[in-house]
Design goal:
Helix content is 43%, strand content 16%. The protein is of the alpha+beta class and 280 residues long. β5 (83-89) and β6 (92-104) form a beta hairpin. The radius of gyration is 20 Å and the shape is globular.
């Protein structure tokens, strides 16, 4: 599947059609989506209905499971999401939310329901690029070109940033069985994600952003190892099981220290490029 899924989808799908709804409120949308997808809390049911995993497990998104048949129908229906998002917690897959994907041709735009057009983000690269790159959820780069527009809806895991935000930084807490504190900084959640796959993801972000020398690569990799060990030690401590302001501050300090160490490990030119990494 290394060919361009976007091109295939847009060439085969009809123009996007929004399924008529009697009630266009956000509450009605969420109620319809939840009622239709409750059965997918058992992932074997999702598999039986045609959903398959694609790409990486993202720290603030989880795994994407896509139904290609729904992608090609060109319809937008809250009861039939093209994508389900999962995370494995304590060895069991947990349904987090859904995502809707519409093929858009030149001149077409995403609907402004149930969220604004700005809540949708574009996908227009190959399957490999779109599902592996750290810039997976970067929006707006396709301009008016043919593309796939995606809208996340966090209907099974509350998202502090809002139901339709692309990233959900409550997920790193959820993976570890920790209750996130209200108004906790994203830097604390990013730090926590280092112990549940995030270290590999963020390391890939660095390596994708700049070509590192072998010496720089060793230093960057060592920084991730040390930071992950520091977070593991904090997680074992009593202050993290129920996050306190000081515990969150400690987590954030590790995260910010990680990037300070990475910046010090690379050349000035590479450092300038790393400043633009969206996940830091």
């Amino acid at each position: 599947m290394k060919h361009a899924l976007v091109s295939v989808a847009i060439s085969l799908a009809c123009a996007p059609v929004a399924t008529p709804q009697d009630d266009h409120s956000v509450a009605a949308f969420i109620e319809s989506a939840r009622a239709a997808t409750a059965k997918y809390q058992d992932r074997s049911v999702a598999i039986a209905d045609g959903y398959r995993p694609i790409g990486s497990d993202f720290p603030a998104m989880g795994e994407h499971w896509i139904n290609i048949g729904l992608l090609f129908d060109g319809k937008f229906d809250p009861a039939h999401p093209e994508v389900l998002t999962y995370a494995v917690v304590s060895g069991r897959p947990q349904l987090l939310g859904v995502a809707y994907v519409l093929p858009l041709l030149q001149g077409e735009s995403a609907p402004d329901w149930p969220a604004s057009k700005e809540a949708w983000h574009d996908h227009f690269r190959t399957v490999e690029d779109e599902t592996m790159q750290p810039q997976h959820h970067t929006a707006g780069q396709a301009g008016d070109a043919p593309r796939l527009a995606m809208l996340h809806a966090w209907i099974w895991l509350a998202n502090p940033a809002g139901v339709f935000a692309a990233d959900n930084w409550a997920l790193p807490y959820f993976r570890l069985g920790i209750q996130p504190a209200q108004n906790a900084p994203d830097t604390a959640a990013r730090a926590l994600s280092l112990v549940s796959g995030g270290a590999e993801y963020f390391s890939a972000s660095v390596h994708a952003a700049v070509p590192l020398t072998s010496t720089e690569r060793r230093k960057v990799d060592a920084a991730f190892v040390r930071s992950r060990a520091a977070i593991e030690a904090l997680v074992r401590g009593t202050s993290i099981s129920a996050p306190t302001p000081s515990g969150l501050q400690n987590l954030s300090a590790v995260w910010m220290g990680l990037w300070k160490e990475i910046d010090a490990s690379v050349s000035p030119k590479s450092r300038a490029s790393l400043q633009r990494v969206p996940t830091r």
